[in-house]
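hi! just following up on the protien thing from before. the input was this:
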Amino acid sequence: MIKEFRDFIAKGNVMDLAVGLIIGAAFTAIVKSMVSDLINPVIGLFFGGVDFVNLFIVLKGEATFVSLAAARDAGAAVFAYGAFLMAVVNFLIIACVVFILVRYINRIKDASQKQEENAAVAAPAGPTELSVLTEIRDALAKG
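and the predicted 3d structure came back as:
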């Protein structure tokens, strides 16, 4: 059973998946930073400096809180629609970035395949087995 598990782990697909997950986690950190540090402040400027994360409604009670974190720390039941909106915006931005990267990678892959195809077409075709045997037969018939 251990040998079978080791063989399973050593397969290319599992290793590719592991590498993909590790790269994906690192890429997620980069994209999250891009969204929260670069894009969200620009969006906030367009909406008058409003931080969407701090848009919420207290569901029970009349208390007012300065931020969503303060409301949650106080144990208030809140409807945090701003955090949801930011999650949707973040998802759309991340999906757009991933789409652009995949599209770029596919273009590079297609260009590489076209170069390989052109190289294969440009290479002169060698003699076939039949033509070589025919030449040998003809040479033996003359000699």
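The two ends are 66 Å apart (CA to CA).
The chain has five helices and two strands.
cheers
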